[in-house]
Specification:
- By secondary structure, the protein is of the alpha/beta class.
- The chain has two domains: 109 residues, no CATH class; 145 residues, 3-Layer(aba) Sandwich (Rossmann fold).
- Helix content is 38%, strand content 20%.
- The protein has a seven-stranded mixed sheet, sandwiched between helices.
- Helix 3 crosses helix 10.
- The radius of gyration is 20 Å and the shape is elongated.
Length: 292
């Protein structure tokens, strides 16, 4: 089958909610048919072990079959959609969104955009062995629930972690300047309020000018000038969602957040040179990407 024909069939499936309505039990809903959502969904479906009918919210509203017990949502728009009462929700790729009040008689679980904090801190320590003082900048209110976990993990590894809530983007320049001389590096979670093109450029400029490593949580942050990012691939998010969905169907309960086990490490050689970081052979072998 030619690539054009495959693309045409995929577009037809995405545009045809009647095909999705034929399924039952488990249904997937995608915020759009974009490459990232489709990559995560394809990985989910493979790990789930069976074909799962799906809807593309960018094309039409989903018609959820009456016998649906579980919806797997990809993206914030899909996660925040109004589903029938009693339907369990597993959702991913939704930074800053938490379904704090699940639908009546339903359970929900969010797949995190980062691995466990123990893995993040461990990787940062490996990349920068002399790391003693780390600042974390964030704006999304829900990150507050993770502050103690991150700080405790830093203490375990001999790192003093200072968690800094940024009130607004207007306050960020002065808050960032305070890191000069007071920290050995700073890390930014996948925070949709803080991560704007302007703020990313500011972090890049501050890091490179002052030789203070900037660490991110997505491949995109690495491309924009972070020394490294410790995040999760879309493929891993989908596979983790499948594992949670299968266990939810078996009657297991989950915390509000499930962190994927496998981290994706991405590195930026230019940023490392600017900040005096030499990547060890072990770090380089772990990296999924090394940008020049």
């Amino acid at each position: 089958m030619s690539s054009k024909l495959r693309a045409g069939l995929l577009a037809l499936l995405l545009a045809c909610p009647a095909l999705a309505a034929a399924g039952g039990g488990t249904v997937a809903v995608l915020s759009s048919g974009g490459g990232a959502y489709m990559e995560a969904f394809s990985s989910f479906q493979a790990a789930y072990g069976t074909e799962v009918p799906f809807f593309n919210l960018a094309v039409s509203k989903p018609r959820i079959p009456a016998d649906t017990s579980l919806v797997v949502a990809f993206g914030g728009k899909a996660a925040n959609y109004s589903y029938p009462p009693g339907v369990n929700i597993v959702y991913c790729m939704a930074p800053g969104l938490f379904l704090n009040q699940p639908f009546p008689a339903a359970r929900s679980a969010k797949i995190g955009l980062v691995p466990e904090f123990s893995e993040i801190v461990s990787q940062l320590k490996e990349i920068q062995p002399g790391l003693k003082r780390l600042r974390i900048f964030w704006m999304t209110p829900d990150f507050a629930k993770f502050e103690q976990l991150v700080v405790a993990e830093g203490t375990r590894r001999g790192i003093e972690i200072t968690s800094v809530k940024v009130p607004s983007s207007e306050d960020f320049p002065s808050i960032l300047r305070q890191a000069a001389g007071a920290s050995d590096a700073f890390w930014v979670p996948p925070d949709p309020l803080l991560i704007t093109p302007e703020n990313l450029q500011m972090m890049h400029d501050f890091s490179w000018a002052n030789g203070i490593p900037f660490y991110g949580s997505t491949k995109g942050m690495t491309v924009e000038g972070a020394v490294a990012s410790i995040g999760v691939s879309f493929r891993e998010m989908g596979a983790t969602a499948a594992g949670v969905a299968l266990r939810l169907a078996a009657g297991e309960n989950f915390p509000g957040m499930v962190f994927p086990a496998k981290a994706e490490v991405t590195l930026n050689a230019s940023a490392a040179r600017k900040c005096g970081i030499d990547f060890s052979p072990q770090t380089l072998r772990k990296a999924a990407y090394l940008f020049p």
